[in-house]
Automatic annotation (TrEMBL), chain A:
Keywords: Membrane, Transmembrane, Transmembrane helix. Residues 91-134, 279-292 have a biased composition (Low complexity). Residues 66-292 are annotated as: Disordered. The keyword Transmembrane helix applies. The keyword Transmembrane applies. Residues 138-267 have a biased composition (Basic and acidic residues). This is Colicin import membrane protein. It comes from Vreelandella subterranea. One of its GO terms (molecular function) is toxin transmembrane transporter activity. GO terms for biological process: bacteriocin transport. InterPro entries: Tol-Pal_TolA, TonB/TolA_C.
From TrEMBL, chain B:
Part of the Tol-Pal system, which plays a role in outer membrane invagination during cell division and is important for maintaining outer membrane integrity. Residues 80-207 form the MotA/TolQ/ExbB proton channel domain. The Tol-Pal system is composed of five core proteins: the inner membrane proteins TolA, TolQ and TolR, the periplasmic protein TolB and the outer membrane protein Pal. They form a network linking the inner and outer membranes and the peptidoglycan layer. This is Tol-Pal system protein TolQ. The lineage of its organism: Bacteria, Pseudomonadati, Pseudomonadota, Gammaproteobacteria, Oceanospirillales. The chain crosses the membrane at residues 12-38, 127-150, 170-192.
Length: 387, 229
């Protein structure tokens, strides 16, 4: 079979074809991996369509203007509404500070107490150990003494028996002596025991007293610390109060200064102010309005983006700004070109996009003052580098 | 982030199981078809070269008996050599047995036809697989795509807002299956046509050679008949 295979010129086997085929596929996979980052620019650029409309600039400018004017008006009327705000915020800040300080003090006190308790506990443990050791030593001593006594007794007995026959006379005297010795020994033992007992008691008492004294000292220290802290707290509060008062005074002075300035301004700009009076009231809530307006404008932007059919000949650098006026229910009243892109077709497509996207019913969900603000806004159309 | 999510490997890895199976099937089919393409191309080129060589020696005026003796009997040859060997062996075997010319020539023709048919089988083997891959893989790829798009629409029904950005990855992912099917099918079609054409041309040459050889034998027998009678 092998011979036949080698002789067979047409049967070339499958090893090399397989290698070639896999090499071809690997090559193709490699190409697909390498080529992609380069060709990725296209999908990337097409996603720019979403970011084509910019309209907040005109609105925010107006809002700021209105805000300034409203502030002027408020100062003129000596309205306290805006001034109260920093006051309350300062008070709140001080309160928060106080609370934080109190909390910290409490935490410190608790920590100190805990530490003291721990020390006392450790000391008591050490004492108990020492006591135990002493008791053990005492027991050892007693045991030894007893043993000795027993030995002595046995000896004495033997002596007595031995000598009983020979010297009965001496017996009594010796017995007496023996008894005396025993008594003496016992007395000595008792005395030693009593002594040990006394010593132990004394030691214990001393230790107790020490522990008590320690506790007392700690308690005193703690109390003192607490007092100091309380004093410091009071001091801080007093300072905070003083500062607050100072700030208030400053704010008052500033307010008066500003009011004066604005009153002067007001006279100069009386005509303009009258014109923008309606907007000024809405701008009292400029912060809130800006947020709502932004969300509304985002909705509008998205709707217009989706409706916008970008002309095929639009270039990347083209940009048109359109002014839109809305009716009270969100319908488009007029659209006018503020700055043209130079290409009528492009401008028309932008205008058509707005008309397609209308009406913007979301306008009716906003508060009335904001509605007035949002009735007129600018939209900027830039296709980016789509094509 | 965007280019990462839309890159081909990422799309393949995030496809559903059925689509991935289809892709695997197509990849295997593509690899096997390329194996067949390479194997057949090399084999056919060698057969052509061999045929040219043999034709040259055959028409160079060499003695046919010598040529036959050069071919080892136990070694199966291919192509025109095989046909020549089969025909000449039959001729040599029949010659001593019968004096009838038509019987000899019929036997030679039959054995050469058998050899030719074996050659045909040898040359066109596996080409059917190529044809199968060429015709079936687009459908398999299309199935993967349809399945993927079905899945994409099902998941689309769950989302709140249907924008192009939410559908695009799904469709791109599903379309990869069709791309792979076409990728497997196109080379298979091209090479099937090319290889089967090559094989049929070679077989035609073999047939011509068999006829020519038959004519030579016929001429020889006629000469012998006239010489003997």
């Amino acid at each position: 079979m092998a011979v036949k295979k080698t002789r067979d010129p047409q049967d070339i086997g499958y090893l090399w074809p397989t290698v070639f085929a896999i090499a071809v596929h690997l090559l193709i996979v490699l190409f697909s991996l390498v080529e992609w980052p380069g060709s990725d620019a296209e999908p990337d650029s097409s996603s720019i369509v979403q970011a084509t409309l910019v309209s907040t600039e005109a609105f925010t400018n107006r809002a700021q203007q209105a805000n300034d004017q409203s502030a002027a008006m408020q100062a003129a009327e000596e309205d306290e509404a805006t001034v109260e705000e920093p006051d309350t915020s300062a008070a709140e800040e001080a309160a928060a500070e106080e609370q934080a300080a109190a909390e910290q003090a409490a935490r410190e006190a608790a920590a100190a107490e805990e530490q003291a308790l721990e020390a006392a506990r450790a000391e008591a443990e050490a004492q108990a150990q020492r006591l135990q050791e002493a008791a053990e030593a005492e027991a050892e001593r007693q045991r030894e003494a007893e043993e000795q006594r027993r030995q002595e007794e046995a000896e004495a007995e033997a002596q007595r028996q031995r000598e009983a026959e020979e010297q009965r006379r001496q017996e009594e005297a010796e017995a007496e002596a023996q008894r005396q010795r025993e008594a003496e020994e016992q007395r000595r033992q008792e005395e030693a025991e009593a002594e040990a007992q006394r010593q132990r008691e004394a030691e214990e008492q001393r230790r107790q007293e020490e522990a008590e004294a320690e506790a007392q000292r700690q308690r005193e220290a703690e109390e003192q610390r607490r007092q100091e802290e309380a004093e410091a707290e009071a001091q801080r509060q007093r300072e905070a109060e003083e500062q607050r008062r100072q700030e208030e005074a400053e704010a008052e002075a500033r307010r008066q200064r500003e009011a004066e300035e604005q009153r002067r301004q007001e006279e100069a700009e009386a005509a303009m102010q009258r014109q923008l009076e309606g907007q000024a009231q809405a701008a009292a809530e400029a912060q809130q309005a800006a947020q709502a307006a932004n969300s509304f404008l985002t909705i509008v932007k998205r709707a217009v983006e989706q409706a916008w059919i970008i002309p095929s000949d639009a270039s990347d650098s083209m940009s048109a700004t359109l002014q839109v006026r809305l009716g009270p229910s969100g319908e488009v009243l007029t659209t006018s070109v503020v700055s043209s892109s130079g290409d009528g077709n492009f401008d028309r497509s932008a205008m058509q996009a707005i008309e397609h996207a209308a009406p913007f019913g979301e306008l009716r969900q906003l508060p009335a003052e904001q509605q007035r603000n949002l009735r007129q806004f600018n939209l900027r159309f830039t296709p980016g580098d789509v094509r | 982030m965007n280019d990462n999510a839309m890159s081909i490997p990422h799309l393949i890895m995030s496809a559903s199981t059925v689509v991935q199976l289809v892709m695997l099937l197509l990849t295997v089919g593509s690899i096997l078809s390329w194996v067949v393409i390479f194997q057949r191309s090399i084999a056919l080129r060698r057969a052509q070269k061999e045929y040219a060589q043999f034709e040259e020696t055959f028409w160079s005026g060499v003695d046919l008996n010598e040529l036959y003796r050069d071919i080892p009997a136990d070694d199966p040859r291919h192509g025109a050599e095989h046909i020549f060997q089969a025909g000449f062996r039959e001729f040599n075997r029949l010659m001593p047995k019968t004096r009838n010319t038509t019987t000899v020539l019929e036997g030679v023709q039959r054995s050469m036809r058998v050899a030719w048919s074996r050659e045909e089988d040898r040359l066109t083997q596996h080409l059917v697989f190529l044809a199968t891959v060429a015709s079936a893989s687009p459908y398999i790829g299309l199935f993967g795509t349809v399945w993927g798009i079905m899945g994409s629409f099902q998941s689309l029904s769950m989302t709140q807002q249907a924008t192009l950005a939410t559908v695009a990855p799904w469709i791109a992912e599903a379309l990869i299956a069709t791309a792979m099917g076409l990728f497997a099918a196109i080379p298979a079609v091209i090479f099937y046509n090319r290889l089967s054409n090559n094989a049929s041309r070679l077989l035609g040459k073999y047939e011509d050679f068999a006829e020519e050889f038959h004519a030579i034998l016929h001429r020889n027998l006629q000469g012998r008949d006239s010489a003997s009678s």
